[in-house]
Amino acid sequence: MPKTSTDARAWIDEAVRRVEADANRSADTHLHAFELPVEGVHLYLKDESVHPTGSLKHRLARSLFLYALCNGWIGPGSTVVEASSGSTAVSEAYFARLLGLPFVAVMPRTTSEEKVALIEWYGGRCHFVDEAGEVYAEAARVARECGGHYMDQFTFAERATDWRGNNNIAESIYEQMSAEPHPVPSWVVVSAGTGGTSATIGRYVRYRRLPTRVMVADPDGSAFYDGWEQDSSDVVTGCRPRIEGIGRPRVEPSFVGGVVDDMLRVPDAASIAAMRWASGKLGRPVGGSTGTNLWAALTVVERMRAAGEQGSVVTLLCDGGERYAHTYYDDGWLAEHDLDPTPYSAVLDDLDRTGVFSPQGA
Q1: CA-based torsion, 298, 304, 308, 312: positive or negative
Q2: Prediction pTM value
Q3: Digit-coded pLDDT (tens) for 312-357
Q4: CA-based torsion, 169, 172, 177, 183: positive or negative
Q5: Which domains, ranges and CATH numbers included, belong to the chain?
Q6: What sections of the chain are H helices per DSSP?
């Protein structure tokens, strides 16, 4: 491998400074108390939609760029290539523009048009494939052909973030919870796209010797749940999960099942119902993965309530619903994709009325 030239090293120094300066300009994300008619169990939403690029993936993109820069994988003029279902590509396009680098996002053709527009607005180029499982090889091929660097979030997400602290999402949650009635959450509930967030939180609670347990919510068509249950990294579903940003047709290398205490399969229609229900309560639209997280978090809250336990549960508001105006918020699109949230919406209405969450009634 050639040595790094003095000019290239100077460029890397400046690039790292720019990425760190961007982080310093960004305030921490909010932690919202989510009101429920349940005594003794408090639910919180960590609002990742307020990042500069509008989603949880802003944290990942920053970490991936720093990791690649400090490893000498990208330098002056490098084309950055990523395989993504949309939100990571939006955030990486932002950081590529910050550093003056070309960016190519390899994505399924079904990615929401709002995400495509954002990637292009940041100066990125979108390269489409027909099937979700094709993104990996195609991204690697595009990077080879242009002499660029394939960022490969699905491999490097779990190792690019400092899971011991350094203001990662886990440390932020615990600092913000410190003055709450139950400052140490009984559960943190997240979903997995790469698995990087669940790995960071799961490792952090073990490192800090905290009693918090971690649940991962998985949508229909994803391999993570089956892989975790079977303790196998070889599970492949052959399906494309319909909740953008989470779930994968294979178990990704960054998914660390050993730090996950429980998993829950969430039906896609339940994710849509919870997404719309939460949007009504918050007064602004949220995305589908937030609905997945919330449905699983409500399941945990109900288990605690039924057992007479008190405590807190934290989950993530991953991104805003503006990115899904033509999909999850479009009744015609839902009908076309055979998604009927009505029975699940009725369960949420019953929760509002009775304080009991009964998903088996959907």
Answers
A1: negative
A2: 0.94
A3: 999 999 999 999 999 999 999 999 999 999 999 999 999 999 999 9
A4: positive
A5: 22-55+160-361 (3.40.50.1100), 57-157 (3.40.50.1100)
A6: 6-25, 57-70, 87-99, 113-121, 135-146, 153-160, 169-176, 196-207, 224-230, 268-282, 288-306, 331-336, 342-354
